[in-house]
Design a protein that fits this description.
With 88 residues, the chain is mostly helical. The protein contains 3 helices and no strands. It has one domain.
Length: 88
């Protein structure tokens, strides 16, 4: 991957990450906070994938996969708790 494209992608993802963190901090509703946390984790997964493709190491892909799976399960659990006030 070209260095210019890498730096543009990293800057864009860092800006998106900062916007998501601000959204988590300012959210008044629980559902908005859940969605902002999910978006934050997805942006972090994208950061790991871009960095992994640039450095040609697979360790970051493993971390991105684990983070995506944990994020998916936690969002489902949080949404269920918010709707029914019980986990399972």
């Amino acid at each position: 991957m070209s260095d210019i494209i890498f730096y543009i992608a990293m800057i864009w993802l860092v800006v998106l990450f900062c916007v998501c963190v601000v959204m988590v901090a300012r959210a008044k509703s629980g559902l908005v906070r859940i969605l902002a946390l999910d978006t934050t984790s997805l942006v972090l997964v994208a950061l790991l994938i871009v960095y992994s493709s640039t450095t040609h190491t697979s360790f970051y892909l493993d971390a991105a996969l684990v983070l995506a799976l944990i994020s998916f399960i936690s969002v489902i659990a949080a949404a269920r708790y918010h709707s029914e006030r019980r986990l399972f």
